[in-house]
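Journal club side-thread
Mid-discussion, someone asked how the predicted structure for our own chain would compare to the paper's figures. Pasting it here so we can look after the session.
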Amino acid sequence: MGWLWAIIVGFVLGLIAKAIIPGKQHSPLWLTTIFGMLGAIVGNSIARAVGVEETSGIDWSRHLFQLIAAIIIVALGDMLYMATLGKRKQHRA
């Protein structure tokens, strides 16, 4: 069940990050989900390093770290995607 939640959280974080980043992102949905999952992992690590372990109720600060990390990873990942695979797809069309 842990993997299912990781995929769901990654999907949601990736979509929110794509909505926040200005302009059009070209990475496919499956890659955005992976970027969102990486953002959740990195955000949790940063939150722990800052001292946010567990709180009662909704842990807004940890979610904020996750979202910021997801935004950065989605933006960088999309640039890398366009620099490698995206240009090959544009030349074929």
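Post-session note: The helical segments are 2-20, 29-50, 60-92.
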